[in-house]
Design goal:
The chain folds into two domains: 123 residues, no CATH class; 211 residues, Jelly Rolls (Sandwich), CATH 2.60.120.200. Helix content is 17%, strand content 29%. Strands 6, 7, 10, 12, 13, 14, 15, 16 and 20 form a nine-stranded antiparallel sheet that branches. It is globular.
Length: 375
């Protein structure tokens, strides 16, 4: 029987060193501390979204902020016990807008969430100071990005966007570009059919003008939803359009009784100007959402499961109605009108179509983009 050679001391030390190196690599790769921090940031992102939406909704409902003075510098939100000293009391949000004021997962005193009102846009911005642990990207809400785990998650205004007509990035042709790349429109005006003949200054950069006679843009509808969605656009009606009896439609769709449109109609009662909306199988004239001549206004129509809401200027005026939820059978949608006597005269900018109903926070963000950028 042959003798088997044993490991030398040097060989054993080398094996131990290799095992230690491999273990260190595995620990670094797994990095449980960083993974836990990413999970905490996901909770922080959810908390800030809830706070952001609650503050905005309170402002829409009450035409005031939930506390007398909202700071322009970041200030910590108070916890349920009113801590820390000098914090901002948002307890008026509970229970109608929030079940409770959220608290950072690692906070021991106070919420460790901060809020400020942007003095330019007059909108709330929030941040979670503890979210930068392990060099992660800070979690914020109400700014241009909302980050949960450091991977650069974009603002939710990109979610469900199936068409976006900026109305200012077109070549001198009949094509009206959809920035999503899915639904480029086609302009017809009975003359040149060239977009450059309609270029004007818009609410953001450029817009397109419509003469009220035959100008319109025919749209495809790839990916448009039949059960839930949003149409958003900026309008500047021309006062020379005159009395609108049957209504004109800056955004129009009608197919075999199925509607989706936003129109301007002169009420027979006191000649009050009102918006009229069409969703699914019905058309409803609003009673408290008025259009104004020669003034830019932001109009959003959301619809979902038998409920439709029209918002003017992020809730300055709004009205919610019920409709027969039979879905929408798509034909060709149009920007600018459909036939003689019902064409819109004025300017239109930044038209967006979503396959979901936007919430009020997103609508406010869209409205505020009218003073900034369409990106």
């Amino acid at each position: 029987m042959k003798n088997q050679k044993a490991f030398t001391l040097l060989e054993m030390l080398l094996v131990i060193a290799i095992i230690a190196i491999l273990a260190g690599i595995v620990i670094i790769a797994i990095n449980p501390g960083r993974q836990l921090a990413q999970a905490r940031n996901a909770q922080r992102a959810s908390d800030l979204r809830a706070l952001h939406s609650a503050v905005q909704q309170y402002y829409i409902d009450n035409k005031a902020w939930p506390t007398t003075t909202m700071p322009s510098d970041l200030t910590e939100v108070c916890d349920v016990d009113g801590n820390p000293l000098g914090c901002l009391d948002l307890s008026n949000l509970v229970p109608n807008y929030l079940p409770a004021i959220p608290t950072d997962p690692q906070a021991t005193v106070g919420t460790n969430y901060q809020i400020a009102i942007n003095p330019t846009s007059n909108t709330p911005e929030l941040t979670a100071p503890s979210s930068t642990e392990y060099d992660l990207v800070p979690v914020q809400a109400g700014t241009t990005t909302l980050v949960a785990t450091g991977d650069g998650t974009l603002s939710t205004l990109g979610d469900g966007l199936v068409a976006h007509y900026k109305m200012n990035d077109n070549a001198a042709s009949a094509i009206v570009l959809d920035s999503t790349g899915n639904n480029n429109g086609t302009l017809s005006d009975g003359v040149s059919n060239v977009t450059s003949d309609h270029d004007v200054t818009g609410i953001v950069n450029g817009a397109l003008s419509f003469d009220g006679s035959n100008d319109r843009i025919a749209l495809p509808y790839n990916g448009w939803s039949i059960t839930a969605g949003t149409v958003s656009l900026w309008l500047k009606p021309d006062s020379s359009q005159g009395l609108v009896g049957n209504g004109v439609e800056p955004f129009w769709h009608y197919n075999s009784g199925n509607r989706l449109y936003i129109g301007l109609k002169q009420s027979n009662i006191g000649y009050t100007t009102n918006y009229i909306i069409g969703v699914s199988g019905g058309a409803i004239q609003t009673t408290n959402v008025n259009w104004e001549n020669d003034v830019w206004q932001h109009i959003v129509l959301t619809y979902d499961s038998g409920t439709a809401t029209i918002y003017k200027n992020a809730g300055e005026q709004s009205q919610t109605v019920s409709y027969t939820n039979s879905g929408i059978t798509w034909g060709t949608p149009y920007i600018g009108g459909i036939d003689a006597g019902r064409y819109f005269k004025g300017l239109i900018d930044d038209v967006r179509v979503y396959d979901r109903a936007l919430n009020i926070g997103e609508i406010i963000e869209l409205y505020n983009s009218g003073a900034g950028t369409e990106e």
